[in-house]
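Holo prediction — 6-deoxy-beta-L-fructofuranose.
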Amino acid sequence: MKSVWAFDIGASNGRLILNSFDGEKMYTKEIYRFTNLAVSVTNNYYWDVLNIFTQMKTAIRTSVQQGHKVESMGIDTWGVDFGLLASNGELLANPYSYRNPKNKMGMERALQNITSESLFQKTGVETAPINTLFQLFTMKTEHPHLLEMADQLLLMPNLLAYFFCGEKNNEFTISTTTQLLDPQSTDWDSSILDFLQIDRKILAPIAQPITIAGETLPVINDELQIDPIKVINVPGHDTACALAALPLKDHHSIFMSCGTWVIIGIPVEKPVTEEQAMTWGFTNEGTMEGTYRLQKNMMGMWLLQQCRIVWEREGIATDYEEENRLFEQAQPFYSYINPDDERFFNPLNMVEAIQDYCRDTNQKIPETRGQIIRCILESLAFHYFLVIKRLETLTGIKLKRIHMAGGATRNEHLCQLIANATTLDVLAGPVESSSIGNAIGQWIALGEMKNLQEAREVVERSFPIQHYQPTDSAGWETAYQQFLKVIE
Ligand code: LRH
């Protein structure tokens, strides 16, 4: 049996998963998990990328101590963020987090000279302040010294891969999150770079997914006491990895990647750039196969994660079991929020932000933790229903089932609420889908699996899928109409 290391680094925690394949089935083992939170300092939000790298090295040591020997490693992360290197290859500064508040201002300024419509036509990507494009625009004015010194820009998974193997490139799927990529040529869009007045040569070239980036550097091998291994360009974007691991059956299947963010969409050959898609905030990002996914990026478990931080601060930390119990005790359909409302993007106190929203929209104010949890989960479920209906309108396809991936599939209440709200079957799992997709990229690159279709068959044989059917239809339609009224 052969094994690979799949690093799946999210915007709240990172994991090293050992993925083993015996020719029939895949097996996963979580080796190491660490917290990864943006650091707020001098009015900016940064990623502590050297800590991420240190944690990755500790993860490798832990695996080696357990006697594991692997063929290769691959790294996937959240989208849009990047690091800058000086001409001697050194990291110039800590990368900014996409939650840096300055980006919004930067976006507003940029949009005085370029329209959302033209950007959407060129890239297929939704205009959002988090995008690399607007982060660069903001950097030009707010932190110009950095761009003046920069020689290379590497997106987060490729920056980390560079630390391990010394090769500089930007993998296709993560590059599609930047709003700087031209899907026609699959290369950086010159007109957008001209607009930004960014020298094209700082953007490291695009690498296709499922290619070998390089080999671990001697200094890494010595430090970690490992034999050199291949570093593979798996899909660098966690959502592309998650989609790869989902055994979608046909074009009536929706994929849903559920973590800090929730991403709902369907695979498409080419970006869908009609006006309605733009108005509804859809976006087109790349897949492992070099095609696209038409999708909407939305708030997910971020809302609950941030409430947990508030409760912890107040000395009333909740665990998963307790949250379930509190949810069950709370009255259904009490109050709703629009999960994508700006005020939830990075508030100092998420609980108060939710209460303020309910007050401002003349609803009952959720006071207890149970009421807050219900308000979040029910609002998420209704929001996803709205987006699925819009996907159907856009594509003319009757969507029949939802394949859910990611950590939030562990939340049984959320899965059931989604089945009830959408009246669709929900197939939840595999949970660690991003790391499985990451490993699939490696197995295909290593020639151990033929293609994605074969890989998905292996997934079906290897991991349990939880099935949720809609139940309890009473009151859902009225509640959905109520939700719509609130968010309009
Ligand atoms: C989710 C995600 C999402 C967005 C966001 C910044 O982890 O990748 O697709 O790109 O991070």
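READOUT: The two ends are 54 Å apart (CA to CA).
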